[in-house]
Amino acid sequence: MNGDGVCGVCAAEMRILGKWAFVALTYMPTFGQVTIKQLVNGIKYKSEKEIFLESSIERKEPISLFRKWLQDACETPEIIEPNAMCLATATKDAVPSARFVLLKDVTADGFTFFTNYESRKADELAENPSVALAFYWLPLRRSVRIEGKAERISREASEAYFHQRPRASQIGALASPQSKPIPSREFLDEKEKAIKAELGPEGVVPLPNWGGYLVRPQTIEFWQGQTNRLHDRIRFRKELGANEAVDGTLLHQAHKRSIKRIESLNM
Predict the structure, then answer these.
(1) Where is the Pyridoxamine 5'-phosphate oxidase N-terminal domain (predicted)?
(2) Domains within the chain, CATH numbers bracketed
(3) In the chain, what is the straight-line distance between the N-terminal and C-terminal CA atoms, in Å?
(4) Which sequence positions are flagged as catalytic?
(5) Is 108 left (phi over 0), alpha (psi -120 to 50) or beta?
(6) Residue of 258, 266, 191 lying closest to 51 (CA atoms)
């Protein structure tokens, strides 16, 4: 922090543009005496003894492999929320947006998350059900990418999960008009207090316009970083081309400095 109260890493300039306050950040490539380049170069990946080979996959089936990797992430103390995933959606005009949500279930059918049905993501899913999910578990140097289509789960399933949540979370979902402008933070606090007073300590919280989505995967790609930069990448693809057959054989294809191994099979 310098004498003007500006951080040594970035300098900020605020300008008023109409009704917008615009903050321009100029990032300086230093952390004390250590450069960003030095910090990035210090990242450690897997050693050659930890190569992600197809022989290490017990079943050439992506859901089982994902469960194993998620379990590994859950058992790694440095990973606080192993079920956090980036959800990318797009409008019918292909304008994208992304945000982080929490994975709540994995079955043979796909991946389930919950959200407010009046949110931006829900609006975009109504127009365009194609989505992408991405997990990144930094301490494990592993990532999983999923592409597919999202569909709403049944109201009964959404309601059952909703009432398993902590009561405070239920009330919060009812009080918050997600993705809508509000006059102030106090507006939410007052609305929460009003709902608590109306329901009392034992009243059942009604299900708001809120529920789950099931993402049915079309491709699932597993990535593991390697020290020698020959990163491991194995992709499972559901849809088959005219000249493809499910025979368990892996197609090996080099791509730049990475190794890309593609598996075609039904999920």
Answers:
(1) 79-188
(2) 1-40 (no CATH), 58-163+207-225 (2.30.110.10)
(3) 54
(4) 229
(5) alpha
(6) 258
